[in-house]
Amino acid sequence: MNNFRFTKIIAGVSPTLAKETVLSKVINMVDAFRITLSKGYDDNNKKYIDTLMKLDNSKTVILETKWIDIRIKNTGDIAVKKWETWTAEFSDYAQEGTTKIYIDYPELWNVKEGTVITCQQSKVQFKIKSTKDDTAEVEIIDAGKGKIIQYDRILCRELNNFDEDEISEKDKKDILRGLEYGSHVLGVSCTNSANHIKSAREFLENNNAKDMKIFAKIETENGLKNLDEIIAAADGIIFGFDAFPSLKKNDVIDVIRKVKNEGKPILLTKVAVEYGQDFEKAFWEEILDFSKEAVDGIMLETFLIEEEVFDAIEKTGNILSDIETKLNDKVLERFEKEWDFEVRDYIIYNAFRSWNELWIKTAICFTENGYTASRFSSLAPRIPVITFTQSKETYRYLSLVWWVKGYKISQSFNYENLKKIWKEMIRMIFKGNISLDDKILILQANETINTEKWDMINGIELYNFKNI
Q: What's the pTM value of the predicted model, to 2 decimals?
């Protein structure tokens, strides 16, 4: 499997995946990890991050707010049979009992009689018979795998009627703990508008995390309707495309292109995914054509069964590598909008044109906030983009951008310092498969020339590998 894929893999962390014995097998195949606040932020999340950083402290951790990520709260599996009657009860915390089905949905009393609820990976379905206060009497109408798996995700559109435009007070508390324990990127679930992102950004700014990157997760009708303003407000998009059954394949492709045309990364996630024997067929048949649009990353949902982890991640990486060998060249077009950064975008456009016409082997890029690398990458040049930044937040963000290999450098580095290490880094990435006459592109794109910091031109430079 190629460890230098164009498309990044993001895996959902759970007690199953967080075991060091499991993580050590897959950590080199995964570019970033996602921790959801579906269970709130507890000490287990700290352990997850500690284990990840122990094995590889270059990995990026995305902290995703809860919203409609409704979960089973039982800490153990529950055996069920068809037509059994159970009591479902609201619980915001994990419960050890096996005589009830605990769910972290606070409005069970408001669920209509006859509503069918599905447990995502267990494939168990139960129907609401009656409700009272925080409980509901339910009937098992499909026993699925014969048990409800601990912490399984609940799928039911009737429960997903959230229309808030701000992060919740509970999410704020959880985010603070996430910042304390070392998460790197914030994912805002069920983003409904630009105000939703602005509220998250304001909260981060007020808590000494103003440079943290924010990805908006689009999984509601309001979010899809307000997509343009959300793209403008966020640093990237997570698109749960299967949350919209009415969307056709071309509609999804239009969303991907809209995000890429704004120079921002897009991560695809399929909410209703089942791992196991049929994962490869069920997952990839649906998103194959989307991946050909040079999406920045594939986000795999939380793993609940240990035996499924390695196989699913390995298959995902192999298929991505195969897709990337068959990508069509992107049509070369000038940026058509009146951009806020006309000089910077003109430089980036000409860097892409140089790659397209001059057989460039790789690009060296310098960036402060990630814009240059992300904008250049959005044009889908099929070369490694080796990127240097002095910002730790930007460094983590670059792990989510299509074919960007990011490196964090200290404030003392300058252009001449970096030249000395380029050759070794390029040799390492290409494993020696590079000739002395291969062309290397160096990209620095700012609105104004900043010679004090990098001692290089504001534009592009071309070298043969032997002349660096």
A: 0.81
